[in-house]
Amino acid sequence: MDYSNDLIIGIDLGTATTEAAVFRDGKADMILNFNEKIVTPSVVGLDESGNFVIGEKAKAQYIMAPDRTAIEIKRKMGSKDKIYLGRQSFTPVELSSMLLSYVKRYASQQLGEEITRAVISVPAYFDDIQRQAVVEAGEKAGLKVERIINEPTAAALSYGIGHMEEESHILVYDLGGGTFDVTLLELFGGVLEVKASSGDNELGGKDFDEKLIEWFRSRFEEKHNVSLEGDTYALARLKEQAEQCKISLSTREEVQVQIPLLTEKDGVPLGLDETITRSQFEEMIRELIDRTHHPILTVLGDSKISKDRLDLILLVGGSTRIPMVSRDIEEFLGKEPKVEVHPDYSVAEGAAIQAGIIGGTIDSEDGIVITDVNPYTLGIRAMRDYNDDYMSVIIPRNVTIPVKRHQIYYTSWENQNEAEIQVYQGESRTASRNHCLGKFKVSGIPDGPAGEEVIDVTFSYDQNGLLQVSAVITSTGEEACVHIDMMESGVEEKIDVSKWKDSSYADDYRSILRRSEKFIKKAKSGPKNEEMVDRVRELKDLVYQLKKAILEENLEEADYLEEDIQDLIEEAGE
Ligand SMILES: Nc1ncnc2c1ncn2[C@@H]1O[C@H](COP(=O)(O)OP(=O)(O)OP(=O)(O)O)[C@@H](O)[C@H]1O
Ligand SMILES: [Mg+2]
To answer: Most buried pick, 119, 186, 301, 377, via CB within 10 A?
Structure first.
């Protein structure tokens, strides 16, 4: 089917809320959902009869039926976690795709044509695996994902399109429901150039809610000498009230929270009645707000733009309505932040503008041009020696994308016929501390002395923030390559490997698996340090992979994993 003339919409798939927009008649218009609202809660549930409910309806059923309602799904994107709605389990990708297909339906109705293409925004600080998960969710929903755009870049675009003549350095501070992003851009001659991005994927309104929940909960539990542990209904009510209370504290100095019936004790109903002041709340979230400072310093440092050269600080995301947030930014950067774009709509608007550029509704001659960067350092685990574990950087963080870089590596020992390319993303100099995106083998390296054969490794990072890696043996031209894709991504479903012992190959691996078990047991009872925790985590993953390989009778892979496990245990001095 040829979709080339179809409209492309922009979608901001948020942790708390989802919005969609379309670029037409020279501007980005927000699209109304079936309830004629712009903002849709990012909530998915099953109703009593087992039908899906999405958005407002799902949010409304949350306090009554938290066990079959999923909130804050985006936090889990890219992970292997299962989300239960009643007894049925779903992946984060599946539930996100339910949200996206809801958007697709209402947008199709509002715009009067079947919508099949979208630009979807993601936090700038999402890694490759999280981005892949979003692409997959889009595709599952029947949307061709034309581009993944970084949320702060989108917000800056919605500002930039109306200020094309300006020359300025803009810092976008995006604090939403679940993620924090900070991006520094330069607007010059109609070009919006991202200089650097950083952030924290686990910082947002949800975490502020949790501070309040903790506070209310401990006061309630103490007062009534009860525990709310495992009381999902009470905790869901508390969550709802905590968020309301937080929002009220943005405009009021003091808020009273009353929940007439929170739980029961020996048949007696117990209620909650507490008053909290804004300054108490601010004290609770101080450490969370402080966590925004480091990423801000990172983008200033990486872009080599000092804070006094910032012309505009743009606030994006619902949580920037907290007065303490803008006060903190002003104190930290010495400049008052501005609400020049709509904190809730600008990301979807920017995604729609990007969609307009791709679809041709915005003329590339007169329109704004944008460039973005990769937020993480990318590289491989150095191959000099089996035990080497340092990160050999191929693409440093915050370079303009798309980007293609290559690096040359040499064989490490005589007659080395194989090399393993392990691809990592992250800022640690120790490769295994970073996030492993995938690995593949290059085989068929001709015999020869150490250092004679050359392997040329190339990383291509595209405009969506997705990576492709290839390696060529220079002397033979033999190539191996990997798209860093779902194969290695966190969304792969875990299978039950407990039956590995039934395999006819089990005996061959019993000894290494027993050694692993012993190692893990010993590590658990021994002193814990960061290195050990990492090692155990890695070992557990390898053990799982090995059992899986045994069950699948993939013996080549199993032997290979056995070697990895041996190395890991020996490295730890066992
Ligand atoms: N007036 C307010 N004061 C404080 N917090 C608010 C206010 N209004 C909304 N919020 C919070 O903002 C968050 C939602 O913001 P937003 O819709 O920008 O997030 P999101 O885009 O869904 O999340 P993310 O971008 O992190 O994925 C929620 O945690 C909500 O409680
Ligand atoms: Mg957002």
So the answer is: 119
